[in-house]
Please model this.
Amino acid sequence: MKRDEYMDGAGLEQERSNALTSDKLVSDNDRNHWIAWWREARFGLFVHWAPYSMLGGMWNGERVDANYAEHIQLRGKIPVAEYAEAAAGMNPETFDAHEWVSLAKRSGAKYLIVTAKHHDGFAMYDSKVSDYSITRHAHFPRDPIKELAEVCEAEGIRLGIYYSHAMDWHHPDSQGNTLDYPGNIGAWDQLEEWIEDDDKRERFERYLHEKALPQVEELLIDYGPIGLMWFDCGHKISDEHAVWFYDLVRRLQPDCLINKRLRDDWFADYGNPHDNQLRFHPVQPDWESIHTLNDSWGFRYDGDHWKSPDELIEQLLRVAATNGNLVLNVGPLGNGVIDDTSRSLLETVGSFLERNGEAIYGTSGSPIGTPQWGYCTWKPDENLLYLLGEGLAAGRFLGPAWSR
Model:
């Protein structure tokens, strides 16, 4: 497995957890109520944006060898002080929350997931917990997450928050940065390699209590209703650690959804396979497939290996036909501008959904399997079967084919 792709942890075998006691488990009725909007949505938009977006995969004039541009600090072996100095220059004056949410709506997305803190540890909101943020460290006078939360609520788009809880390359006690902090847990160290090491475990737990848990708390308290918390690298924390986050979310916003990468399926409202996975075998009835428009999640200057409109729409149908949600990612430039190619690709998906959305939104997986000539979706409550065939970007829609 490629090192960048190891971070998602989706392919690692994990034993079923028994960490959640019966009094903490939610009922099927409660969960069905919380997740109803998500099942109806079927399509969302992801945004990866932070100081790495300014760098665009380049450091000191040279390309950093990394599949994902947002891993530039780790893969480029950039000292924390130098990365922090670059981060201090982030000044996205052209960022416009209305433009981002408008693009999400034009793409047909029903929810928007935004990176509040990625592995680099930099908060893209006005965090009171840590000064390493866009408002305090970079002295940007606005709170991007606050602005997005307000516009999403006004426009009827559910806001999701991405938060890297297990990994923080800025904090001296977290995981991943062994360049500046040699005694830390390594970025590719597996849980069983360090969990019995008292020093590493205690320092990591200090990071969780000093920064990660308090930041998740302020995001859940200060930014209105959050549709979902999108955690990452959950394979790198223990069941006990996962319970701390799980309890926090359930206490502060009980109907906020939790993705698989908090820890594993046992803690999740829905599952996540590998990033950019074209073939899948979902193990949960509710699941979400996330894909980049090119090769990287964060913006990179040479990221010109774009997927075609047909590829994106076919993936949407492939996922919907298997009872899943598709989330496409865009990586804005450091100044907050979304490039023209990303806009065009997302608007093409939106045009398809404007014509054929009834075959996607609110549907379930095909009851008849996948035919050789295309895809099927189903609305069981209405006894409607939808058939979608080739010529997808042009919008060839062959259903509803059957009703009763």
The chain is about 30% helix and 15% strand. Residues 96 and 336 are 7 Å apart (CA to CA).
